[in-house]
Amino acid sequence: MGPLATVDFLRKLIEETPAAGDEEHIPLIATSIPQIPSRPLAIVAGGASPLPAMLACLRTLKAAGADAVAIPCNTAHHWYDELTREGGLPVIHIADAACDAVAARGLAGGTVGLIATRGTVAAGFYQRRFAARGLALECSTPEEQQRWVLPAVAAVKRNALAEAHALAVPACEALRARGARAIVLACTETPLAIEHAPCAVAASCIDATRALARACVAWWQRARAAVEA
Amino acid sequence: MGPLATVDFLRKLIEETPAAGDEEHIPLIATSIPQIPSRPLAIVAGGASPLPAMLACLRTLKAAGADAVAIPCNTAHHWYDELTREGGLPVIHIADAACDAVAARGLAGGTVGLIATRGTVAAGFYQRRFAARGLALECSTPEEQQRWVLPAVAAVKRNALAEAHALAVPACEALRARGARAIVLACTETPLAIEHAPCAVAASCIDATRALARACVAWWQRARAAVEA
User: How far apart are CA A31 and CA A3, in angstroms?
Assistant: First the structure.
C-alpha cells in the first residue's frame, strides 16, 4: 500500500499478462490511499487499525464493478479473514501466491528466508503456509530488522531506491548465510529495493509482488474461460 | 489509456510529489480499462466513439470520491469539452500542462516538434495551444508517422520497449533536423519508448506525461492549502 509498491504491482501485472495490444489487458480499478494507518504499527505497537479504511476501499472497488481484489501489501493480509468476510469480494492471497512460487522452484523440504515487516512476521501467516509445505523458515534477527529491513522499506517509501538497495542486499545475504536456499521478498517495498541495481543475491529472491501478479492473471484467465464456456 | 502508460503516469506522479513517507502522497483512484475503443481510430477512421466508456470511468471515479481527474492519454483530450461538461469533475488538461513545460524551457517564438498519434494531430488542440504561445509546430510527416511513430506506440502497447525505443528515436531526430528546438512527447506511450535507453535526443524531449503529473501535484497542493486556509 506504499504508493510505489502499488505502481510496481501494476507494472508486474502488465508484464505477466500475455497481450498483443491494449484490449487484451486486464480491466482494473485501483485505489491508492497512502493515508491508511500503518499495518505493521497496528500489529506490533497497538496503533490505529487499518481495517475500516481497507474495508472502505473494498466497498469502493465493489461499487466500481470489481470481481476480485489483489492487495499489494503483505502485512495487510493479517486482516484477510475480515477483509474477505466483510468486503464482499474474493481476495487473492499474496502469501499463497508466494508459496506457489517457492514450490515452483522445487524447494520442498529446504529452508526459505523471509524478508518482511515486523507486522508480517508477527502475524504468522507466512510461517503457517511454509510449515504446511514442509519448508523451514529463516527470518531476519531483530538486529537485522532494525539495521536493514525497516530502513530499506522506509527508503522506498520516500523514493530513495539506491539507499534502499544498499540496505536490502545485506538483509538478504544474512539469510543466505544462515542456510536459506531462497528468500521471499514478503514486503512489497523490498522488490523495488533489490531490483534497483544488479546484485548477486537477486537470483535467490522470490518476489511476492510478481507472484501476486501471476496469480491475478491466472484468476483472470479462469474467469474469462468460465464466461466463454 | 494504454495500461503501461497509465502505470508510467502513476510512477511519475509519485516521483513529482514531495513526500517523506506514505501519508504525504496523493490519495487516488485509478481506472485502467484497456477495452475502451481506440481514440485515434475514432478521430481519423470513423471508429466507435470512446466517449461513453470514458464518461462511465469518470462517473466511477466521481462515485469513489475523486475531486479532479487526470487522463494520461493525449488523444482522449479531443473529447475534453464533453468529458468536463458531462463527467461532473474538473479534468487537468495534458496539453496545457505540456505547454507550461515548453514555456518553462524559455522556448517562446521557436519551433517545437510534436510526437503524437494521428488522432491527436487531427484533433488540433496542441496546434491551438502552441499558436496561442507564439510557437511554430513541426509534426511528423505521414511517412514518418507510418514508419516510426505508429509502430513505436504499438510496440509499447505490447511491452516491447527496446523495439519501441529504436523506432521513437529517429522520429524525434527527424523533427530536430527540421528545426524543432524541443519535442513534446504528446502520446503517453512515447516517453516509455524514449526513456527505455540513453539517447542523445532525450535532452530535447518534453514529456507530456510528467508535465501532467506536475500539474496534478500543483492542483493537489492548491486544494490542500484551500482546505487548510
Answer: 10
